[in-house]
Amino acid sequence: MTDGTDANHAIVATHSTEIAHTAERTLTASQFHELSIVPAAAVWFANIDNPNTRRAYQNDVEDFMAFCRIELLGEFRSVTRAHVIAWRKVLESRDLAAATIRRKLSAVASLFDHLCNENAVSHNPVSGVKRPVADNNEGKTPALSDDQARMLLQAPQGNSLKAKRDRAIIAVYLFHALRRAELV
Any idea where the domains of the chain sit in the sequence? Predict the structure, then answer.
């Protein structure tokens, strides 16, 4: 799936960029044809903005495909809930964290949702499959206390433009719980 998906992802990305730069122009016949033959799975991957999520989901889907011995995208039509449950049991036997198993199931569920929307499969076999309970209220990253957040906001001293800018950046970072890369 990686070879074809990477190539198709490149086609989608290239043509999307070309179209964005030439918004006043319509698609050429060649561009229209190339976009119309991109497999639904490649479109799904291309629509995931975060590169870390895309990489994790791609690995998760490839893991599922290897487990089910899926070689062609059309074989997704034969996947049943029993396949997904068997895969979940294998994941649990690997002693993976509950959050990792949930992510892997979410990745496959998301792909099947997209394939259902594209009428490439009739149903989502991941629907109804129980997922391990994960600590949803507790993140892995230690949180700042209110006092620590206030101290951080007060760190840029003065009324200079740079200090105001730095306080604004820190405020956006803290109040929206952004990752460093998202803030940049």
Answer: 2-117, 146-183
